[in-house]
Amino acid sequence: MIEIIIIVILISALLTFYRVIKGPTLFDRIAAADSIGIMFLLVLVLLSIYFQRQIFIDVAIVYALLLFVDVLIMAKFFGR
Amino acid sequence: MINSISILREIIAYVFLITGTYFLISNAIGMIRFPDFYLRLHASSKCLIAGSISVLMGCIVLEGISYISLKLIIIIIFLLITNPVAIHAIAHFAYNYSIKPQKIVKNDIKQ
Known about the structure:
The complex is a heterodimer.
Chain A: H1 2-21, H2 26-51, H3 55-78
Helix pairs in contact in A: 1-2, 2-3
Chain B: H1 2-33, H2 37-63, H3 67-96
């Protein structure tokens, strides 16, 4: 059951990747990359539940922190 | 008795997980189908935070009380704080980059 949910979240990340490739403006690409990052964070947590490995959740915490800093710096650098 | 309690816990967890995946799919369809940048940002912020918190709540119910659920609660609080801040920053810098919404009737920000 968890495998099906992981596959559905990956399909949804693949649909969001369309907006990264064909965004009219640059901020569309930044927002879509933020969505894809949070979806992969959820996939990481579900893989940790599926394989019974506790170390993946620590990786997920650091990944969420780096994603926030990443989006802020990209928006401030490319914007005005 | 213990078996029925564990079955009930799995049912509640899978209800949370399926609700979260529904919100994530609606996020992806909204990112593809909406015509404007600000509408896409609207779909991205609300559906993404609802879906991620629902999936993490399902993982907490599936796991029980342990260190793993404490770390998952930390991730939920962190996402609740940081995701609106990031979306607001993107919208602020995009407005200053002179990306205006389509079919705008009255602009309240412009003096």
